[in-house]
Amino acid sequence: MINPEQETVLIVGNYQTREMRAVFDSVNEICCGARLFHCTSLNTISEEVAFPALIIVCQNWPDEFSTRGLHDLISRFPISRLVCCYGVWCESDGRTRTNWPLSIRVPARSAHARIQQEWDIAQGKVNVLPLTAGRDEIFQSETSLEPLRLDSDGISPLIEVTSGDYHYKAMLEELIVSWKGRITKQGQNNDVDLLLVDLDPWELVVSELTLQDSLPLMIGVMGLAHSETIMAAKQLGIDAVVCKVAPEQELFQAITRVLKIKAIPQAGN
Predict the structure, then answer these.
(1) 214 exposure class (CB count in 10 Å sphere: 0-12, 13-18, 19+)
(2) What is the domain class of 152-259 according to CATH?
(3) Which neighbouring-strand residues pair with 56?
């Protein structure tokens, strides 16, 4: 029996590809309790789907979905939140095609934070980002106006940052300290809660990680984290990979998710 008050999420496209599996996992985690519908194309959406709170489009290649199909989708579900998670073959679509508004496009590798944001919008927790939003508005929407805190329940995680780039390492350490996290000092390695590792250059880092027997929970940061690299990193025990140019909330959410910290921004004192 369908609960009339149960919210629904519609997934369009193939979510079983290597890139899109993470998108599907994020939907299951974030939209827990919602009823999921799936269709392979925009013109095969079941009549049973009435008013989805969130629509996730999995775009694996350019021109997989037509402009007409997008317009029909918006006309049919004008108040649903919509996000198009695109794969690496669609990276240049923002320059070469205008099918999808910038405000609803997000790389599949960075989809978790965006799906969380869209779900919060659907729940009325944050302000709506309009379809017509420009790059500056999109950037501003991804920037938290409240301080982010890692010290849930008064406990600050101990984090070690490793990077061959001294200045980038210092920047990450300053960012973690600003979130009320702690940075390791000499002799604290056995007590580390999380290792934040710079995965560039990948060929060098992967050989170093392979030689180590025991490692704590790990998050990797990388310039261009393609699906094959992310899979290889996870096989080495890295729990999450975050793009270096992603909004800082994405790294914050990855840390709180891996450490199972309550990811709720707290007002400054």
Answers:
(1) exposed
(2) alpha beta
(3) 11, 83
Query: What is the pLDDT, as a whole number, of residue 234?
Result: 86
Q: Looking at the DSSP assignment, which residues form a beta bridge with residue 223?
A: none
The answer to whether the CB of 96 falls within 8 A of the CB of 7 is no
pTM reported for the whole predicted model: 0.67
Separation of alpha carbons 88 and 230, rounded Å: 13
**Residue range(s) of every CATH 3.40.50.2300 domain in the chain:** 8-141, 152-259
**Rounded to 5 degrees, what are φ and ψ at 243?**
-70, 140
Residue 132: count of CB within 10 angstroms of its CB: 9
Residues counted in the chain: 269
Residues with Cβ within 8 Å of residue 159, at least 6 apart in sequence: 176, 181, 182, 183, 184, 192, 193, 194, 195, 196, 255
Whether the per-residue pLDDT at 58 is higher than 50: the answer is: yes
Q: For 121, phi and psi rounded to 5 degrees?
A: -65, -45
Q: Tell me the CATH number of domain 8-141, given options 3.20.20.70, 3.40.50.2300, 1.10.340.30, 3.90.800.10.
A: 3.40.50.2300
Q: Which of 22-31, 34-43, 172-181, 209-218 has the lowest mean pLDDT?
A: 209-218
Q: Give the β-pairing of 81-86 and 158-162.
A: unpaired
pLDDT tens track for 130-180: 666 666 666 666 555 567 889 877 789 999 999 999 999 999 999 999 999
* Cβ 46 vs Cβ 39: under 8 Å: yes
